[in-house]
Amino acid sequence: MTDSPLLASTDTATADQWWRTSVIYQIYPRSFADANGDGMGDLPGITSRLGSLADLGVDAVWLSPFFTSPQRDAGYDVADYCDVDPLFGSLADFDTMTAKAHELGLRVIIDLVPNHCSDQHPWFRQALAAAPGSPERDRFIFRDSPELPNNWESVFGGSMWTRTTNPDGSDGQWYLHIFDSSQPDFNWDNAEVRAMFRDVLRFWLDRGVDGFRVDVAHGLVKAEGLPDFIPDPAAASMGGTEELAPWWGQDGVHEIYRDWRQVLDGYPGQRVLCAEAWVSPLSLMAHWVRADEMHQAFNFPYLSSSWDATAIREVINESLSAFGEVGAPSTWVLSNHDVVRHATRLALSADNPQGDGIGPRTPDLPDPAVGLRRARAASTLMLALPGGAYLYQGEELGLPEAVELPDEARQDPTWFRTAGERYGRDGCRVPIPWQANAPAFGFNESGRSWLPQPQQWAGYARDVQQAQAGSTLNLYRDLLALRRTHGLGAGSVQWIETGHRDLLALRNREVVVVANFASEPVDLPAELHGLPVLVASDAATTTTVLPGEAAAWLDAGN
Fold first, then answer.
1. What is the set of active-site residues?
2. Least enclosed by CB within 10 Å: which of 127, 386, 491, 533?
């Protein structure tokens, strides 16, 4: 056995740069906790459950959108960026929640959606009422054309262009929408748009938020001339291929984020920006986190990696190298509100259906037991890596994708725009279970739920798992506690060569991490025999043998 050279380190992190090593928990407000019993999660519900997240051991929470919205795309269609939708409560409820989070030592990050707004936003309603060429229409992307202005296809299916109707009933201009027709794209060449978003940043910073997750951070700017483009049919709808679509990853976005960074730097307490940027390779993604731009970017190549030791090692190496080149920490993420939950996805035999979802008619649905084993092992490996980590609500319970949702219950725009051909993201957005024997599994007291909860989720409920030694919940609690006490977020990666293609081993500070991607047990290298097991995804782990599809942390500090 030989050690590889030290690959990367974040030891230069200073105490006030909390974002370099933080573990951030994503709350999907619709599905976290419902205080008023209407079936929709809300801010008071979140406030009531924050103590469980402090107990879990995370450092911050990130809330998906709760702004005023007609909810055509679950709140990612914003009608008012500076108010709370009544579905979720009020600004006073937000202030109460933020104060409670800070009292518990949790920072608060909120979503910001700058690529597009709702068609109910006052600006877009003004644009529709105004004439072509007017200042109101210049805030968006309108075009005159007898036919479709180009061949661009929406992320949700169908054309990216919708035609307006003139007052006399004749055909009007077309407007651009990367997503649903109810989500018109802003024109980021317009000075009013840029000024408005600076004001939005300040509004929420003044209310005490600690940062923003920026939705579609690789969007906003479109290529000059809006040229026709046919994406690789194997590419994910949100991008992620080395050939950038003319609506993704254009250089002009970086000027915008440098401007935003100056706004955040004017506030105390290390306020942060995190990019949702589906671009590839990682060396390009690192452009979003240069020293004068954003602080973090979601590591989608890591999330998208298959269950394969070689692939995982390569993406870890590439991540640490690419982000390290610009002085930024890597982030690590396995699930979020847009992808199939990793307790299901990691056992799929087909490619990752990013954005498309899976459902009852998906062929070769995976064995839930295999998916859970792999998910526990993957999380054990991920939380040992230096940098920041993101968790998605319910993954600490080992929740699988909700596959058996009835067609009539589905709400994702993708389902409707593709006439049911693509399932969309509802399966990862079902309200999470808190109590096995309570109405709606403790999501609320009324038993109502905006998406139906699978009956088998009673066994995943938090109250059940709290009392179970070795439960997924207690595994996460142990991992997060040990990650903090051993300083792994600010550590480094040194690979240990194992001689086994399916066995990864690395050292981060005084912890050796081993992960077995094979289905059968493997003997650990002799040099590791006898190292005490700190935590393991499989209780059958010993100081000499790692079970199949398992991972463990070994104590190398003695």
1. 215, 276
2. 533
